[in-house]
Amino acid sequence: MGGFSIEVKRRKDVLQIKKEIAMKTKELFAQKGYSATSMEEICAINNRSKGSIYYHFKSKEELFMFLIRINNEEWIDSWQEIEQQYGTAIDKLSGLADYYVDDLASPLNHAINEFLSGQVVSKEMMDEMLSLIRLPYRTYENIIMQGIEQGELKPGDPRELMYIINGLFNGLSTLYFEMEIDELRQLFHKGLRAILQGIQQMKQ
């Protein structure tokens, strides 16, 4: 039993070290982008040798993938706190649109987009990328399920509606460099209202 406890603690310690390395490297990626950030700079900002970094991450790609996972998990955690201020599913979807737009300004997102669009990856890494992209799906789906259960939205497949709304947000996000943020925010809400017109339950 004692050996099991020690092993669990060791795993926690290793995970904590990986998180510390990733978070210290986060600003570096955000400032320089993925490709321009070297392993030498990663070692320097963490005050660790290459051997120490490679002990926890096999490559820069693996480190960055780990950072994307942490970033997405933080995105979900932060939204769950914000979500408490909204009562209805409709209001939550509107708030989620604002939250999505505000997050587009994060410098790390630019590095993530560069990484996802510029890497030649293995099937294993592609599967990992897809799993990371899907992390927020449950957030959208839960709101839609709430809306259906409370009679705000018409009965339907929550997963299909999640894909539609997520697709709208992802598609409009490509306009970030072409529009002022307020203009983009209005477009997000206009697109969301257009979808809601088709799925919102009419009050009797």
Q: Indicate the percent of residues in helices.
A: over 70%
> Main beta sheet: strand number and arrangement?
none
End-to-end Cα distance: 62 Å
Nearest-integer average pLDDT = 88
- As a whole number of angstroms, the C-alpha radius of gyration is 20 Å
Helix-strand string: HHHHHHHHHH
Query: Strand-residue fraction?
Result: under 5%
* Global structural class: mainly alpha
Number of distinct helices: 10
Number of distinct beta strands: 0
Structure description:
The chain has helices at 2-32, 39-46, 50-56, 60-83, 89-103, 107-118, 123-133, 137-149, 158-173, 181-199. The chain starts with a helix and ends in a 5-residue tail after the last helix. It is mainly alpha-helical. The mean pLDDT is 88. The radius of gyration is 20 Å and the shape is elongated. It has ten helices and no strands. Helix 1 crosses helix 2 (39-46) and helix 9 (158-173) runs antiparallel to helix 10 (181-199).
Write the layout of secondary structure elements.
Layout: H1 2-32, H2 39-46, H3 50-56, H4 60-83, H5 89-103, H6 107-118, H7 123-133, H8 137-149, H9 158-173, H10 181-199
Concise structural overview:
The protein is an all-alpha fold and 204 residues long.
Structure keywords:
204 residues, mainly alpha
